[in-house]
């Protein structure tokens, strides 16, 4: 396991006094929204009464609904439940879908109506290292990739430009790569023998001792790592899975030996977003999302802001790493530029990593890992020039940003009409909130791709998340040793475990003084009762009413899970165990 800090642009940037206004808009040539519905489930009134849904009568009325909405609707069949399957003659855009649903729901004989969900196999990818990708799967620190994939989203049709060191021809990326461009103008640093050219292959960015520091620096393969997080091939029995495995990567080289030039970055932003750069042929496959896992100290300069404004005006989202200085991102560029999505790094516990920049410039956080658990992705094994395919764990905000870029691709694949500001709102509006916003200073919290997709497609689903945190007094040895578990209405938490099984649901912590935490996905609106335990019946806060005399009588904790598609934070704070342990049943 190795951890490296990401590359930074080795350029001093002059302070600026004014930023240009950001004008997000959808370019006129973008296709309309592709999220469509071609079938509906229509719920019959229960119990069956004289007002039950009659397929014949409904068929007649569907014709009227169709005339009003421009769709031709027919009853396909009656399901075993008595509910009806209704088909449209063609995929209906979202506005028509909503019109059809409101007409159906207005009927006295219809209990409910919903678009018929498209099912996908609920399987785990066969990529052998998928189990190590906590950033995609961990309920506490991950981004909930699998439920997002189960909805059918994979980023197909969306191009993400990775402005970085270029990429190697890694076998786990082979199907994802589009032609790119090498914008590194310094032939001395480029290591490919020339300045700008159409080949974005990464020849290695190693530096000899004295080049840009006293020590030798091995090649980082930074762009290959970032690209793998976004779109490494899933289900190819090889390595890892990218978060948006159907997306295409356009590699754009701006970093090389000792970093890169902000002037090259400005041109690359313009080019990859579909603008024109003198002396360079226009990009035949402009991106909808740019990933910039790079930065330099200083404020956002007017040239960089102008390039970003141009991208936004062409409907292109710009995702930027917050930086790794453990400081306010407002003092770094392009993290502080207007209109970008600035991403802090979070850990396996869903907390901001200590090295991550923070502050009001940050839109949200995503897994960047730390020295214990980095983000696993594609690299080359060469110390200088490329030698062969490999995988490595890196930590940094550079690793966090591509999760958000991939999330943007997943949303755009379902909703190509989304303008940059809408996309930002969907990603931040569904993030897992920090338990302590004042400590995290990480914007809206940790990326949740599943909830973002549900919000983007207007299907909030029937589950919600509950982030449970219990703080324990530092220095209480009895609490520190065995670990804290949750006991309660466990079968209703979807665990398959019996109710009130102490020790069945471990709460996670990363050190002996920090809080314990878990995230449960439960039916929306569920009433939960719970207590904390040390893992057995002797150490339940208070299990049942027949507990032995001498135990401190503490009522069960209760909560009502929130509405569908949201995350509720429940923090039971320090000191809550005093006088409870042990309590023999
Ligand atoms: Ca070159
Ligand atoms: Ca793979």
Automatic annotation (TrEMBL):
Residue ranges of the region described as Disordered: 188-207
Provide the CBM20 domain boundaries. 458-579
One GO cellular-component annotation of the UniProt record comes to:
extracellular region
Q: Which residues form a coiled coil?
A: none
Q: Name one GO molecular function term.
A: starch binding
PROSITE patterns, A to Z: CBM20, SUBTILASE, SUBTILASE_ASP, SUBTILASE_HIS, SUBTILASE_SER
Q: Quick check: keyword Lipid biosynthesis in the entry? A: no
Species of provenance: Micromonospora auratinigra
What this protein catalyses is: Endohydrolysis of (1->4)-alpha-D-glucosidic linkages in polysaccharides containing three or more (1->4)-alpha-linked D-glucose units
Q: Which UniProt keywords apply?
A: Hydrolase, Protease, Secreted, Serine protease, Signal, Zymogen
Q: What class of enzyme is it?
A: hydrolase
The biological processes this protein is annotated with in GO are: carbohydrate metabolic process; proteolysis
- Name the EC number(s): 3.2.1.1
Question: Basic and acidic residues bias located where?
Answer: 189-199
Q: What is its main location?
A: secreted
Matching entries from InterPro entries are given as: Carb-bd-like_fold, CBM20, Ig-like_fold, Peptidase_S8/S53_dom, Peptidase_S8/S53_dom_sf, Peptidase_S8_Asp-AS, Peptidase_S8_His-AS, Peptidase_S8_Ser-AS
Top-level taxon: Bacteria
One Pfam family name is Peptidase_S8
Q: What is this protein called?
A: alpha-amylase
Its signal peptide is 1-27
Stated family: Belongs to the peptidase S8 family.
* Compartments where located: Secreted
Give the positions the UniProt entry annotates as the active site. Answer: 164, 222, 398
